[in-house]
Amino acid sequence: MTLTRRHFLRNSAQALSAAALAGLPAVSSAARTRIDVQDVNGLALLTGGGCNVVALPSPEGALLVDGGLAEHSSAVLKAVRSATGSKRVATLINTHWHPEQTGSNEAVGKAGGTIISHEVTRLALARKNPSALYEGTYGALPPKALPTVTTYNTGTLEFAGEQVTYRYLPAAHTNGDLFVHFPKHNVLVAGGPVAGRSWPVIDWLNGGFYHGFLRSYEILSEVVKPDTVVIGAQGVPLKGSDIVRLKDVYWELFKQFFILFNKGFGPEDVVEFNKGKEFVGVVPVVADRPLKGLIEEMGDPSQFLEFAYRSLQQATIPY
After folding, report:
1. CA distances (Å), 87 to each of 59, 140, 292, in order?
2. Which DSSP category does 207 fall into?
3. Which residues fall within 8 angstroms of residue 47, CB to CB, at 6 or more apart?
4. 68 domain residue, yes or no
5. In the predicted model, what is the mean pLDDT of the chain?
6. Which residues form the domain of 308?
7. What is the pLDDT of residue 47?
8. Total count of domains within the chain
9. 105, containing H or E segment
10. Is residue 163 part of a domain?
């Protein structure tokens, strides 16, 4: 079974309750946080704080892309200082508004750092938001945690003597996604639409839409070189050539979606079909199950398929 955020939160709560009943001290998750750091073409990639966090040092302070969950923020920021030698985070870019990306916003904002995002992300962080990915709501964040610089499309900043660019990925993972490109380092931080060697998630309750998801891979394919290091919100780094390969597979899946859609099949049928269940004489096979190779590489695609298909239904079927 895929460990979704919902399962993780429920299991954590159960573990804490069990400790209380047994008379044992409950150890906070922050106290157990381990942040691993690796060098990626001169940038620091930090994992273990809830998402992939990328840092670029400068004498004035580090540039950070995403900040991990709030409960891990202190550990993440401590690791950033150690990895970069920077005493503070001067600039933080949110690739989107989910909790994993924005948990360090308050600390960075209170310390006087600049927070950059898409305008939709700023608006989302200023209110309560439900999501297809977790129970309950997230937000509103305090004023100091809100982005202070926003874009509707593209932006550029000079940092540590190099140009860093960011650009909107429309209706991809949410409706407020950005990618961040470090051309000098040949690194692209792709955010939510990419999850290295695992399945990305389309938040169909918050503007994530399979058409936009496909468009995001087209845009990323136009920007990357074959050897560009691509860092998603989760998972291991990929190469630009992987993004082009995934784009082609996801397009074949899109064709299959509409064959199934026009036949009246629902999300559960799409999941079963891509796992190998046969609908003989009813549904023509498109590219012999387009996800077959990726399933062997990335595991169970059930959540990805369900959310991707629901996003199409939501956009196509009138209520």
Report:
1. 9, 28, 47
2. T
3. 35, 36, 38, 53
4. no
5. 87
6. 251-316
7. 98
8. 1
9. helix 105-110
10. no
